Amino acid sequence: MSTQLESETSALAEDTVEMTYREAVNAALFDEMESDSRIYLLGEDVANDGGVFKTNAGLPEAFPGRVTNTPICENTFIGMALGMSVTGLRPVVEVMFSDFLATAADAMIEELPKFRFMTGGQCSVPVTVRSIGGGGGRFGTQHSATGESWFIAFPGLIVASAGTPAGAYGVLRAAIRHEDPVVFFEHKGLYARKGHVSRGEDQIAEVGKAVTLRSGSDVTIVATLLMADRALQAAEELAGEGIDAEVVDPRWLRPFDLPHIHASVARTGRLVVAEEQVHAGGWGATLISSLTVAGVTFEVAPAIVGLPDDVLMPYSPSLEDAIIPSAAAIADAVRGLS
User: What are φ and ψ of residue 172, in 5° steps?
Assistant: First the structure.
């Protein structure tokens, strides 16, 4: 069995440290704001006591006047970020709960992805929208969506996520540096997860490139956000049964790194998609469709682990835990392919 947790940090550099996902997000924001005075952070309560989820700790003090609280009006402050971007700034917007990206539909769908095109390329739109989502926190049905697949259908908008601390650091820095708008999804259930992170310019992720978190030969598990963490747990459980699972974090849902996953599935012959969302209309369904069109031969039909199609996220802890895919559910899906 070959195990590779965080392939990009398999050979740990001297400056690699263990930090939480929350700390990795904070480090990415700090390093980018330190390197470029045009970067501003804005959103609801972002400057109060490190922000609601404490990802912004120390930033208001380190960068006076560049971390700004906004009213509770997502469409307005994302629209304001558009104006900032086309006049030379590089705003980073924090949306406290991904569910409320829906209230900013005009800015997210009609403005950010289309502005460069409509101006004939006369300006770029370097806006990063940090969207915090996911269940498991007992926030109820209006504050628990991941939202990760809501915007993959819109040309001009880049969609990214990260399932590990190293990914959070590298992908967020890449998002902030991009000249086009990026919506970067974080998961509040990952904030306390620890992992090895190396800081520096050479750790900035390549846009559009997936990463293999664990190499294996028997099955490919493609998973995002919290599901990537649980897929790694499932893979370790399966290893004790002689099943060698490969775990891939796509990171970029638009553009999607189909060649990376294609190569993995062509080698293992089996695919499990693990996503904290309904399968219909999401990145997992798009992946299976794209692989099929590309001629991948599956030894058995792919398995999908996700949220039920017809159930809203419950507030009850026991019910919430029951519908969010667990590591055990992912492991059972793999076993079902044999």
Answer: -65, -40
Tens of pLDDT, residues 189-242: 999 999 999 999 999 999 999 999 999 999 999 999 999 999 999 999 999 999
Per-residue pLDDT averaged across 169-189, rounded? Answer: 98
The Cα 251–Cα 270 span in angstroms is: 20
Q: Could you read off the pLDDT of 250-285 as tens digits, one per residue?
A: 999 999 999 999 999 999 999 999 999 999 999 999
Q: Kind and range of the H or E element at 238?
A: helix 225-239
- Give the per-residue SS3 of 154-184: CCCCEEEECCCHHHHHHHHHHHHHCCCCEEE
Q: Residue range 117-140: average pLDDT? A: 97
Torsion sign, CA atoms 80, 81, 83, 84: positive
User: How many other C-beta atoms are found inside a 10 Å radius of the C-beta of residue 335?
Assistant: 14
Start-to-end C-alpha separation, the chain? 18
Copy the structure tokens of residue 137: 């926190």
How far apart, in Å, are the Cα atoms of 195 and each of 13, 26, 207?
Answer: 14, 14, 21
- Residue 156 vs residues 4, 107, 111: alpha-carbon distances, Å: 34, 13, 10
Does a cis peptide bond (omega within 30 degrees of 0) precede residue 255?
Answer: yes
Q: Is the pTM of this model over 0.90?
A: yes
User: To which H or E segment does residue 131 belong?
Assistant: strand 128-133
Q: Which residues are marked as active site?
A: 74, 143
Sheet holding 158-161, edge to edge: 67-69, 39-43, 90-95, 128-133, 182-187, 158-161, 252-254
Q: What is the DSSP string of 69-118?
A: E--S-HHHHHHHHHHHHHTT-EEEEEESSGGGGGGGHIIIIIITTTHHHH
Taking the C-alpha atoms of residue 101 and residue 286, their distance in angstroms, rounded to an integer, is: 22
**Residues present in the chain in total:** 338
% of the chain beyond a pLDDT of 70: 96
How far, in Å, are 63, 263, 289, 305 from residue 271 at the CA level? Answer: 45, 12, 12, 11
Contact 111, 120 (CB under 8 A): no
| Amino acid letter for position 107 | A
